[in-house]
Amino acid sequence: xxxxxxxxTGGSRGMGREICRDLARRGHRxxxxxxxxxxxxxxxxxxxxxxxxxxxxxxxxxxxxxxxDALIDRVLEEFGRxxxxxxxxxxxxxxxxxxxxxxxxxxxxxxxxxxxxxxLAVRAGxxxxxxxxxxxxxxxxxxxxxxxxxxxxxxxxxxxLNAMTLGLARAFGPTVRVNCVMPGMFRTDISKAWDxxxxxxxxTAALGRIGEAEEIVGAVRYLTSPDSxxxxxxxxxxxxxxxxxxx
Length: 247
Prior knowledge:
With 247 residues, this protein is α/β, with parallel strands linked by helices. The protein has helices at residues 14-25, 37-51, 65-79, 103-130, 152-172, 196-202, 217-223; strands spanning 5-9, 29-34, 55-59, 84-87, 134-139, 176-183, 186-187, 211-212, 235-238.
């Protein structure tokens, strides 16, 4: 019962799923959160069966402030603590042109990629400060440093997430460490909609390919382990060498 409690948003599939599995493998009690509660509970059941840990699936739309509060409240009620938060949920809907980006789409992208992570990090960070400390990992994107016209609201939100990481590291230190992982192109459910041109873009990376979902795990493991005890306010690029601009 002394094992750490980890909350992962966007945790039911893709990179989030692999992060949840690794945390469970390391003995953490895992809260899987995403919009689809059933998918979260399905993965939580798998974690309980395979790794013998406590796991809970909770439906949460991180773009809604009240859902973020409800998630944190439920975790604290269930476990009495939060030790790790991974803000992994994100979205980047397609649009025909910048002029056709509507207010609803823009607000939704900012809400899921920036507003929600802010609220979750603040609530979790305050709970961690009252306890034994903890680690917060935000999942950004190389779009934050190399924004493209076709994903500009998303890139803007992720750039804000990078800035938020630095500010929260200052706000919650010394007991809470806040860091960021900045992925490049990864093969997940989202990539199923990519065309040949998008996959060809991945070949321009130094490693000549896009990443697999499980390849994000090592970075998150480092940032949530004692090995990174002197690391906070860091932005770790995991992109196969695609983005040349520094974080």
